[in-house]
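assembly run, all chains below
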Amino acid sequence: MASAELTPDAARRPLAGRRLRVGDLSLQLVAGTAAALATVLVGLIAWKVIDGARPALSHYGLGFVTRIAWNPDSRHELYGAGSFLFGTAVTSLLALLIAAPLALGIALYLTELAPRFLRAPVTALVETLAAIPSVVIGFWGILVLGPALRDHVEPALHSALGFIPLFGTPSQTGSSIFTAIIVLAIMILPIVSSISRELFLGVPRELKEGALALGTTRWEMVRGVVFPYARGGIVAALILGLGRAIGEAIAVTQVIGGGVFIHWNLFDGGDTLGSKIAASYQGATTKLQLGSLIYLALVLLVFSLVINAAAQWIVRRVARRQGTGLNRGGVG
Amino acid sequence: MSSHGISPAELRAVNLPRRKAVNRLMEGLATVAALIAVTILGIVIWSVAKRGAGALDLNLVTRAPVPFAFGPVKQGLANAFAGSLVLVGLATLMALPIGILVAVYLTEFAPPSIRNVVSLALDVLNGVPAIVIGIFVFGLIVIAHGQSGYAGAFALACLMLPLVARSTMEVLLLVPSSLREASLALGVPRWRTTLSIVLPQTVGGIVTGTVLAVARIAGETAPLLFVSSLAGTKTSWDPGHALQSIPVAIFELSESPDPQDHARAWAAALVLLLFILFASLGGRWLATRSRRRLSTSR
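ok done. output:
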């Protein structure tokens, strides 16, 4: 080794020392900046929404959240989120109540019951339901679903179960909280069912076969093995569906009918946080009204963040449990 | 054993015919649930197709709407089609490079702590309701500069970014690490390994992810309502002003009492639906194909 250039170390130094680092650094810098931008964007969203809501925030404080009022009349101007919160809770919870058993049934059918050649196409069809834009579902809700519910379902429910205040006088137009609930149920159905389907697919085969070998029927196997194994994930899927229902604005505003009051008649109109915001897109007349609208968006943002955080937390906990203790993760 | 389990005593106590009947009932209910979902899809698509096909003609794409039209006037939604093209195209131009870079950073460079923070941010962004994104862009841009196509595209890009980043990350993680190691062992620097060895492997996956994301945002109304909705009826390609879009047009026409407006909305809904179904089914097909290729090449 007379000349230093021949040692691998020295041969690389002129190149490796400068140029390579520069390339690595710049790609890392550019990509890192993009990642930082994406992260900052989240903070920016929160800050801008809080900033926009400031007129209403400073004027009303937290009392806004529970007050039932939306009166743009300049002499008695008064706003509050109470009735919209109520509408959001009623529509999304009842939509989940309708969608959850159906979604679990679909997932069971697709993983346990359907003949093999039907599984892929039916799965694709159910997921196609998730791809339909909300404005199209809402439009369909106004012109097809709403009138159908008004003419056939609402009178039937009213005459059979009218003693329950939920099923009051049927609506005139077809636009009602009930229609909104059905529309939301249709929209969250594919979300919950596709997550549940993946969860059920993840249940270890030995556990299922073990149960069947003990002489259980298929349903007993599902109840004793599949459901307990996927329990945490199912809860997370339901919460994600709920989050979707809470955040949906367009389809709901198209079919819910509007109104600022709390009542128990599902066949009457109402509004959710999202639908009220969407319905007011053509403009606000005062600063306070605009601030109040954005305050609604802030309440909605906080709710959906909490919901999503809960779902994420459960997903991570379940993943950790199943990752470490796959063997005991079963029939507990 | 918790309440979910079935004890042997229970198994013995319940007689077999009853257990079989319960089983059959539950199997039947699950099948009915699947039937209901497929039926709903069928009804929605059938309603849109039946009403949309009748009103579907070239006028829809070539002619702009006529304001205050009386009687049968030949009019279409050319402004909405042009606007949607511009909005979705611009949104893709904004979200695609940033989304890919975020994914590259997270999979190739970031230390675990930063990776957790950024992917949490992406999850949060994905969970923000679309209408809140609209309000955000309204506060960020529209209050100061008025509605514009740029603002609308930015709002759509906010929805698209987490989708693109997530799907790109998924395919980047599928690239076998032996490929990276081989390239690095040959003395190829990290950045060239990433750009010319790793990324080309994922082009299929990125295209798929982008197609699915485009299918998703093309139908979004909520982020555009406050940001790019007060557009005239003239057909415009200039994102400097508010642009009409297909979803917003359907939304506005759906509130109209005029059956002629409904007919145009059905036709626009049919076109939008066909585009989205085609794109998302095609995207899904591409996804399974590229994933299979990547995992067999391992």
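Chain A touches chain B through 98 residues (CB under 8 Å).

Chain A has one domain: 63-324.

not gonna interpret more than that til we talk
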